[in-house]
Design goal:
Length: 143
């Protein structure tokens, strides 16, 4: 029973919950980046380079069974080893974009932290003796 209690304490800690939220948001953010790369950036790059579809760039590394269509998906389903360098290009571009976006976010967070640190601090509270003396003075002035 002690192990369950320890697990419950671990699972309910704020760090674990924050990590879970981060993973969920990260997964959603990854889908957005995949869409940006696949639907916006790669078609533009393909148009500039010559209307290439990078996801279907590959080299066949083994014998192709008769009647198999020469597409990446069909060859993979047929069990033919393929060197899918186009898919790697897409993943590398995804990583570069994601890394750049994270860099911009961290840069902005650091800038905000520096601004907070540079803000003037509130004046320090006077020592307790000074506060007591002021109270005594004010009470004598009221009489």
């Amino acid at each position: 029973m002690g192990m369950m209690k320890e697990f419950k304490e671990f699972a309910v800690k704020g760090n674990v919950i924050d990590l879970a939220v981060g993973v969920i948001i990260g997964a959603a953010f990854g889908k957005i980046v995949d869409s940006v790369v696949g639907d916006l950036i790669m078609p533009v790059i393909g148009a500039v380079v010559g209307k290439l579809d990078f996801s279907n760039l590959f080299v066949v590394m083994g014998p192709v069974p008769a009647g198999t269509v020469a597409t990446l998906d069909a060859l993979k389903k047929a069990g033919v080893p393929v060197f899918a360098y186009g898919n790697f290009i897409t993943v590398a571009v995804n990583f570069a974009i994601l890394a750049f976006i994270i860099f911009l976010m961290v840069k902005q967070i650091n800038k905000l932290k520096r601004n907070e640190e540079a803000a003037p601090a509130a004046p320090a509270a006077p020592p307790e003796e000074v506060v007591l003396l002021r109270e005594i003075r004010d009470s004598l002035n009221k009489k």
